[in-house]
Design goal:
With 218 residues, the chain is α/β, with parallel strands linked by helices. The chain has nine helices and ten strands. It is elongated, with a radius of gyration of 18 Å. Bound molecules: S-adenosylmethionine. The site of S-adenosylmethionine has 21 residues, from β10.
Length: 218
């Protein structure tokens, strides 16, 4: 049976990849990487590990309706892998956290390609470590959000991390301020051009998609 292993390659620093993921990449022949607008950040991060591999780029245009792309990508994977071959699909951070891989995995299962998943260090794990701010302490809950926050949920958590903040930043920040959260903006965490912003105006001016807001009850 053909097999595809979804690998989380972490937030950017090429050393923040698990040993299991590293060994698997090294042992396989075919590496699939997601690409959008001719760029693959996952491919760039893992470049050192994949340069001697057969690399297949799978296009996932950002913001597009992707159901057809997942079906198509699953077919490309199925056609590329030889019988009993195991290939890997690289994904930023963790494959089960707001990732293309989760949708792709479903399409692969539907066409009887076996799947396995190797977890990765998420962007918010890396941001909390960088900032030296705990995600959760005893008895606390954490809220991970995508693009915006539900203000009602803020009442029941000690900390929150919002990914994909670029579109609704102002609304998100207003909600955090209203509910007594101290917040920090982290851009390209653990990558070469990493930046940490504390001023609201600077956060609002920044347009980088690879950014998040991490907040804790003040
Ligand atoms: C499609 S989600 C991918 C999440 C990823 N699977 C994870 O485990 O972190 C993309 C969003 O993740 C966040 N992100 C991913 N890597 C990041 C990094 N190195 N620094 C800051 N934010 C990052 C950004 O909010 C970005 O908009």
């Amino acid at each position: 049976m053909k097999k595809l292993v979804g690998i989380g390659i972490g937030p950017g620093d090429m050393e923040l990849i698990t040993l299991k993921a590293y060994k698997l990449i090294k042992s396989c022949e075919t590496v699939f990487i997601p690409e959008s607008k001719g760029e693959s950040l996952a491919g760039k991060i893992a470049n050192e590990y994949i340069k001697d591999k057969k690399i297949i780029e799978l296009s996932f245009p950002m913001g597009a309706k992707n159901k057809e792309r997942y079906v198509e990508a699953a077919q490309i994977i199925n056609q590329t892998l030889k019988d009993n071959e195991t290939g890997v699909f690289l994904t930023l951070g963790d494959p089960m956290t707001y990732s293309t891989y989760a949708y792709l995995m479903k399409e692969l299962i539907d066409i009887h390609v076996q799947t396995e998943t190797i977890p990765g260090i998420t962007s918010y794990n890396a941001a909390a470590a960088l900032l030296g701010i705990p995600i959760t302490l005893k008895d606390e809950s954490f809220y991970l959000a995508d693009g915006n926050i539900d203000e009602k949920l803020l009442n029941s958590v000690a900390s929150v991390c919002i990914l994909k903040v670029c579109k609704n930043k102002e609304e998100i920040i207003d909600k955090l301020e209203r509910n007594g959260f101290a917040y920090t903006y982290v851009k390209r965490c653990t990558q070469e051009d990493q930046a940490v912003l504390y001023k609201k105006e600077e956060m609002l001016a920044d347009k980088d998609y690879m950014s998040l807001i991490f907040a804790r009850r003040a």
